[in-house]
Amino acid sequence: MASVSTNKQDYSPGEVVTITLVDITLGGTYTFRITDDPNDPGDDNVVNTYSFQAVDGGAGDADGAADGKITTTWTVPTDGSASNATLNLNATDDSGTVVASTTFTDAVSATIDQWGNGPAPDANGTGNDDEVWQNGNLNEQGAHYAEGEAIPYRAVLNDLTPDAVYALTIQWDTVDSAAYAIDYLTSYNFTFDGTKHPLEPDVNPTFFTPQSDPGLSSNGVSTVGIPSDSQLLTGFGHGITDGLSSGQPSGAQAFTFFGSVAGLSTSGVSYNADLTKASITVNFTYTGGSGDTADAVVLAWGGHIASSLDWRDDQGETVQTASDISGSPYHMRLLALTENGLVEGLGNQDRSLSASAVVPSNPDFTITKVVADILNPDDSDGGSTVNQAGDKIVYTITVDNTGDVDLTGVTVSDLVEGTTATTVTRTGGDTNSNNILETTETWTYSTTYTVTQDDINTAGTFGNGTSGIQNVATADTDQTGPKSANAEVPASTIEQTPALVIDKTVASVTDTNGNGLTDAGDVINYNVKVSNTGNVTLTGVTVVDPLTGQNISAETIAVGASKDFASTYTISQADVDGNGGGDGDIDNTATADSDQTGPSSDSEVVPLNLTPALVIDKLVKVDGATAFVDADTATGPNTFEGTPVQFKFTVTNTGNVTLSDITVSDSDFDLSGLTGDANGSLAGYQIATLAPSGSVDILYTQSAATVGQHTDTGTASTTFNGSTVSDMDDANYFGFDAGVCGLTPGFWSQHLWAWDGNSSTDGEVDSQGKTLASKLVADDVLTLEDVLIPVDSNRDGVIDGNDQAGVLVGDLNHNGLKDAGETTVFFELIDAQDLINASASTINADQRVKMSRDAIALQLNINNGVVDPDGLITEAAKWLTAQSPYDTFGSKSGDVDTNGDWIADYNDSTNVFDGTKVKANDAAWQTLTSGLSGSIIHEAVDDFNNCRLVGGHDGEGKELIGATPDDIILLGLSSQNTSWADWQGVNGLV
Asked: Which InterPro entries match (predicted)?
């Protein structure tokens, strides 16, 4: 059967059409008639007819052979009569019978192709080129796609008119039978970008077979963005779902032109009434030339196959998509084409993809987690065990896309038991850095967990019963649910090495008694430091110290930490007396323990200072004095022969240990049996025990004074720890024989006749005719029956009738004259006797009266033959006449000679001296001058007049007149110009 065809579908004006007629009679003649289709006559709207003949093997047959085939040509008119017309071609034989027919056009040619990527699985690896552009429908034999992928499409536009403006409308099915089909447009390489179908070639929109190549106008590539679609958020109005979860397609999607175009733009997305079909119009200006082989452009884009993962609201929700539709729901068509606003005929340009070629998406992945390394806190190699807080466990997490769709929104978090989840760091696998886990990718993550002290303490065992350090990584994606993987550091690899160290030290010793020794009463201040030297926290820590009573419990000590516990112990006297248990020190041991360890102890030794010592202090008391004195050296106190002498022995434990069986003895006396003697059968006085600082007084009263220096020694002795402890002390006194005493002012007041210068008044005469004066002389009380001697009262150097009777105070040699070196003051006899008889009130009202009365009595004693006691009368005379050093008190001095005639200015009728009275608290009476004061001179003179001064001899026979027995040595030095200040503070003289 004959057939006729053209070498192209569409031609431009002036282009040559090659016509081929086959299966005809050999050598036959045939007529070719070309007529405008009445329904599409072209731009001139006139039905034109064009005819010509050709003979097989003859005229008009291009191959020149009679072979049953004629190849001939026809040129499209250039006058526009066939422009944009559909041309019907008929071939008739010589009988007029039509043997074959076909159609071609002189107009823009537009076709749509879809990419057939071959049957599943990808077959390119077999060597078969199954991946081609198909100008027709596709099923599972020619393509395999997954939900979420985009089908590449291309429109081939041929025979374009230079500078013409074109508008191509593309339409696609969005919903079919309440199931999603193609939900939006994408770039043509949305899916075929070299990663999703790695075994298949990249999609090339400009690839043609030689027979189908339309001839591109140029190699230019231009793009225009695909507009967003609000219906993607509302489910195309069908209420099937809330809309695409991401809101818009991922990435920037675009139409791509190949060829010479300009002025690219698009309309918005529009829909039919029931929103089941959507369309977009793409506008462009063709800028290429005309011609049979270079007047075409290619427009490429993609159609996204709806995915249930995009359109479901919740994990697990089932949404109907195109794979659930029977038939071929994936329709993409060229709906309309205009050239400069005029509609061009397109014919049926619709391509469909069978649902059988779409595999429902099966998103899936696996996650694995392993321990990659264990590091020390300083990042050095930690080996295979965890043994300290701060160790770092390095994990590697692997997420592998095992499904058939790319996964977006990938998240990986890491959760160590007992902590909060943390995001990990991706370290590799995203080969194209698009943040999409593609089906060909495996992503790796790394995370580090820093081991806590709790992990070490519990060996990773928590309240839920798990052991070891459990680390769970969880991955999730927009397309799947979460999955988890655990990596465990087993409890067996977590080393627990509890260790406790105790260190007991002596912080200080408080020297309570300040003696610089460690002994009774001192406080030992201990410190116990308990340290955790292991790698686990120590709980239930206890510290026990029996000596101090320390008992610490329920303490907790962190790793590497320590705690100090203070305690004290007060040394007892028993500790000291027992020599610290025999080794001379205080031994103390403290023990620490914990729930995790065994006990550990540490001891500390504090040496004791044992200082056994005693002191004996032997005191003496003479003349019935109220107080004992410590007279360690000669001469000691002075007393008169035969007077009582008492001794007191004070034995004191001056050491720090208790002493026992102390014997007290004396060089001169037997002390055995005295009051308090612990054992009278032994020699000496026995003291059973004597504690430190304790003392015992022993009184010996069975002694009388002897003449001369007396020294005896007391001894106290015992033993301690085999060593002798003893002490000795001397006691001294000096015994005097009684000498001549001065006579008191009272005596002279009662015996005025003994110093009135009148021999006829010498006292009573007894029956034997003896006067009292003679008796007193016979008894050695008086040396003269009348001791008032004549004196040179007017100081003319002679004693005669011009002189008055009286007492010349200061007359040391009692010759009545003021001799060189003497200081004297004269008291008329009437004044002197009036002063001797002065009342106590008169005496106390003016200290000059007191001193004058003393001095008059002393001078009468000197006249009576008693030697002046070391110039004492001279000091009294100096004070009474305000002579140096007693001349510094002005009007309140002791001067009784106010007119300077060396005669006391005393009014016997009024009993007062001229001048200002001296009171007991006045400076002239109390202030020391050259070691003496008026009151001291008074006391010394009064001692002499009252027989409290002695004459006699010391052991060397030296004359010592004018000293009391207690002060004889000191007072005896006065004649050697020793300061009279030595009188101060001596036995109450001041």
From this structure: Chlamydia_OmcB (IPR051172), DUF11_rpt (IPR047589), DUF7507 (IPR055354)
**Are 3-106 and 614-736 equal in CATH topology?**
yes
Angle between helices 934-945 and 847-863 (to 10 degrees): 40
- C-alpha–C-alpha distance, residues 537 and 390, integer Å: 14
pLDDT (0 to 100) of residue 740 = 47
Q: Tell me the pLDDT tens digit for each residue of 728-772.
A: 999 998 876 554 457 889 889 899 988 988 877 877 777 777 788
Question: What is the residue-wise DSSP string for 153-184?
Answer: EEEEEESPPTT-EEEEEEEEE-EETTEE-EEE
Residue 953 has pLDDT above 60, yes or no: no
Cβ neighbours of residue 348 closer than 8 Å, sequence gap 6 or more: none
Q: What is the pLDDT of residue 246?
A: 45
Sign of the dihedral through C-alpha 959, 963, 965, 968: negative
From residue 353, how far is each of 57, 297, 919 by CA, in Å?
46, 24, 148
What pLDDT score was predicted for residue 490?
Answer: 83
pLDDT in tens, 664-684: 999 999 999 899 988 888 889
Rounded-to-integer distance, Cα 896 and Cα 849, Å: 9
Q: What is the pLDDT of residue 226?
A: 92
What are residue 132's phi and psi, to 5 degrees? -140, 160
CA distances 511 to 524, 584, 912, Å, are 9, 18, 67
Cα end-to-end span (Å), the chain:
176
H or E stretch including 849?
Answer: helix 847-863
Which among 723, 792, 743, 750 is positioned nearest to 946, based on CA atoms? 743
Place of tokens 């192709």: 113
Nearest to 60 by CA among 29, 88, 89: 29
pLDDT reported for residue 726: 97
Overall size of the chain counted in residues = 990
CATH of domain 500-604: 2.60.40.10
In this structure, how many other beta carbons lie within 10 angstroms of the beta carbon of residue 983? 22
| pLDDT value, residue 140 | 85
Dihedral pair phi/psi, residue 325, rounded to 5°: -100, 135
Separation between Cα atoms, residue 184 and residue 280, nearest integer Å: 11
Does domain 614-736 bear CATH number 2.40.50.200? Answer: no
Identify the weakest region by mean pLDDT among 366-370, 417-421, 822-826, 954-958: 954-958
How far apart, in whole angstroms, are the C-alpha atoms of residue 785 and residue 402? Answer: 158
3-class SS at 604? strand
Superfamily of the domain at 365-493: Immunoglobulins (2.60.40.10)
Q: 672-675 — which CB contacts under 8 Å span 24+ positions?
A: 674/698, 674/699, 674/700, 675/699
- Taking Cα atoms as reference points, which of 795, 851, 806, 860 lies closest to residue 830? 806
The topology (CATH level 3) of 3-106 is Immunoglobulin-like (2.60.40)
For residues 616 and 696, what is the distance between their CA atoms, to the nearest angstrom? 10
DSSP track, 357-378? GEEPP---EEEEEEEEEEE-TT
Residues 888 and 814: beta-carbon distance below 8 Å: no
Report the C-alpha gap between 117 and 138 in whole angstroms: 10
d(CA 351, CA 170): 11
Look at the alpha carbons of 664, 667, 670, 674 in this order and tell me if their dihedral is positive or negative.
negative
**CA distance to 509, 574, 612, 864, per residue, from 582 (Å):** 21, 12, 15, 77
The rounded distance, in Å, linking the Cα atoms of 136 and 200 is 21
Query: What is the model's pLDDT at position 632?
Result: 93
- Please answer whether residues 349 and 333 qualify as being in contact, where contact means their C-beta atoms are separated by less than 8 angstroms: yes
